[in-house]
Amino acid sequence: MTRRQVAAGLMRGMTPVEFARRAPGALTRRMWWTARASLLGRVVRTSLAVVPRQRLPFAWRELTGSGKTRTWLLKDARRPVTVRSGSRDRDILREIFVDQAYAPPPEVAEILRSRKQARIVDLGANIGLFGVWVLSQWPEARVHGFEPDPANLAILDQNIAEARVSSSWSVTRACATAVDGHVRFLAGRQADSRIVYDADPTPDVTELPAVNVFPHLKDADLLKIDIEGGEWALLTDGRFGELTVPAIVIEYHAYNCPEPADSAQTARRLLERCGYTVLETYHHPSGVGRIWAWRSPLSS
Question: Residue 267 in contact with residue 291, Cβ under 8 Å?
Fold first, then answer.
């Protein structure tokens, strides 16, 4: 049993007995406890995102992996946020509110400070954690998100309602693509839900509406893209180079990349040819990473 399989099992709250039943002889007691300790460390760190009085119940919910939704009060933003216990939502919560993964470079921060009401377009809104963070940093901002997955949308709607920001946060309930129409979509996988670009036989594949996002990007001050491989159809489109968006943050993926073995350099090259200065802030050997890109006011 690989480390990834161990982690996946722990996310579902599997016991040592369940592990042994599924993979006889592949999991030792020591391996299980080591992995469990690693999970505990991540949960404890993530709990720092919520107010102190809720940290213990938050950790308990995450470790038991109930899968049910629960609303917590964020420590810094002082806004309620709903997540699915024992799911990938925890990792995203930690990335955004504890690790500050989307803290912008000084050049991008200056661009957003210069706007009275910064307009942020969020392609791949998921359950809305990025949007909640944006509005905690720039309360006057306007957020427009794109999210197609029905399960994610249900929690996204709840987070917008609980934050009482519906007047400044709108959502297009469709896939962010280069053309209008419908696409094959792998739903129900939380942050990993995505458009299917290959002959994937998975029974979860369904057909969902798709919207041409380019008309929605004309007045954007910050464009965030995290659409699990769908970014390449946008980056390679000729219209992308015509955009005047001054700042972009992209989570790129090896999936659907024109050069999957070199996804980081491919993303960098496509952005630089459009006149952006590029800063990579994260890269994983699997081909997933995060890049910030910006243009000076004169070049945009």
Answer: yes
Give tens-digit pLDDT for 86-119. 899 999 999 999 999 999 999 999 999 999 999 9
Neighbours of 178 (CB within 10 A): 18
Give start and end residues of each alpha helix (H) in the chain.
3-11, 16-22, 29-47, 55-64, 89-97, 106-113, 129-137, 150-163, 231-235, 263-272
For the domain made up of 101-294, the CATH class stated in words is alpha beta
Whether the CB-CB separation of 150 and 174 falls below 8 Å is answered with: no
User: pTM value?
Assistant: 0.87
> For the chain, what are the domain ranges?
3-93, 101-294
Could you tell me which residues come within 8 angstroms of residue 76 by beta carbon, excluding any fewer than 6 positions away? Answer: 49, 97, 136
| 146 Cβ neighbours under 8 A, 6+ residues apart | 121, 122, 123, 124, 125, 171, 172, 174, 175, 176, 211, 213
What is d(CA 298, CA 174) in angstroms, rounded to the nearest whole number? 34
CA distance 235 to 196: 17
SS3 81: strand
DSSP 50: B
Q: Which two tokens stand for residue 229?
A: 């491989």
Residue owning tokens 């919560």: 93
CA angle, 139 then 121 then 45, to 5° = 65
Rama region for 70: left / alpha / beta (φ>0; ψ in -120 to 50; rest): beta
pLDDT digits (tens, 9 = 90+) for 167-210: 999 999 999 999 999 999 999 999 999 999 987 666 779 999 99
